[in-house]
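Title: Prediction job returns without error message
Component: structure pipeline
Severity: low
Priority: P3
Assignee: unassigned

Description:
Job completed but the reporter wants confirmation the result is attached to the right record. Sequence as submitted:
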Amino acid sequence: MSSKDSSTGGYSSLAEELAAKAADSKQQKSGVNQEVNLLAKAVAILSAREHSEKELRQRLKRYTDDDAAIDIVVTRLQRENWQSDERFVETFVQSKEHRWGNQKILQALSQHDLDNEQLSDLKEELRDSEYQRAREVWIKRFGAKYGVDMYGSQAIDDDFLDEVEQQDYQEQAKDKAKQIRFLASRGFSADVVYRVVNSRGAAEED
């Protein structure tokens, strides 16, 4: 992942340029230049966290209805690598992949008008890791009950096994349905959900 490049012509950094131009505006007493002000707003937004291009444009529309001015600012920030959809996707997935399934991640990203090829590649990557991610989520929620940990070890005593065996079909079905609903609500695919629940969080075989 590439880092943000803040070099600008005539200034050592974008922050220095914004400060200098803001000072010039005050000295000229001509009001704050719209482009400089919008650029400063955009930099502040992107400094807080990564944003997609669509998301950034929506945020900037709070400050102006001038689409041309927004185009100028966004184009510059992309050129100088302050805004990157690729970087946005990477950080978004990193923040959600240990809690959300593929469907929920891809549905959220579909709202950002991202490149179809990029989303297609991401879909393949997520598919390869979905079982393990769903298993980890299941273990965090239900593993203690079944004595299963992240390393695949089990510490279920005989008394617990007897208790499970003595449960009638209706009780077992109710417990399993609860687990299925939990994983499905996190956006994991049906096939992965049933495999994780039916195996009680067993590690996937190679």
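Comment from assignee: result matches the submitted record. The CA atoms of residues 159 and 165 lie 10 Å apart.
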